[in-house]
Amino acid sequence: MRGYDLHRLVEQHQQGVKALWVDEGRHVRIRPRNAEVPQMPFEKILGFTVKACVAYSSGNKHKYLPTSDWRGRRRWLEERSKKCGFEIIGVHVSGGMQVIDKQDGTRFTVDSTEFTGLLKITNLDAFQHCYLNGISKVGKAFGLNMIIIE
């Protein structure tokens, strides 16, 4: 199950409570946006992973970088990290696209870049907001933008 079907299943499970979610293969991780934020150590180096939609707005369309442009994707994450209250210490970038099947049988693709690395929280309030709401707006309905601290 993928795309809209999985999105609807998560919405049904959450009974109207907005949530971030990510498909981890054998299971789906769900984080309600009204959840308690765990204690986060300020300025300590932490491991993280996030599958994000790296997109730039161009009017009412989204522009995606070429999947091979890992430098541009890293630059995007560094820009987002400033707004999200953390600093990137080191990161591995894997660019890709995710195919979304719609109910009417048509398909479209969204960027699906996986970031794995180390970060340091620099602004606890901003980080907690991004932890509950995602690091970006684009693609949350498709299981993207939920940062996971390891």
Q: Can you walk me through this structure?
A:
- This protein has 150 residues and is an alpha+beta fold.
- It has helices at 3-14, 70-84, 124-133; strands at 19-23, 28-32, 45-52, 55-58, 61-64, 86-94, 97-101, 107-111, 113-121, 148-149.
- The protein has a 4-stranded antiparallel beta sheet with strand order 6-9-3-10, covered by helices on one side. Strands 1-2 form a two-stranded antiparallel ribbon. A two-stranded antiparallel sheet has the order 4-5.
- The longest helix is centred in the middle third of the chain and has 15 residues, at 70-84.
- It is globular, with a radius of gyration of 15 Å.
- The mean pLDDT is 89.
Tell me the total number of β-strands.
10
Decide which structural class fits the backbone: alpha+beta
End-to-end Cα distance:
26 Å
Spatial order of strands in the largest sheet:
6-9-3-10
Give the SSE order as H and E letters: HEEEEEHEEEEHE
Low-pLDDT segments = none
Described by the principal axes of the CA atoms, the overall outline is globular
| Helix content estimate | 10-25%
Number of helices: 3
Nearest-angstrom radius of gyration?
A: 15 Å
Sheet with the most strands, sense and barrel status: 4 strands, antiparallel
Strand content: 35-45%
Question: How confident is the prediction overall: mean pLDDT?
Answer: 89
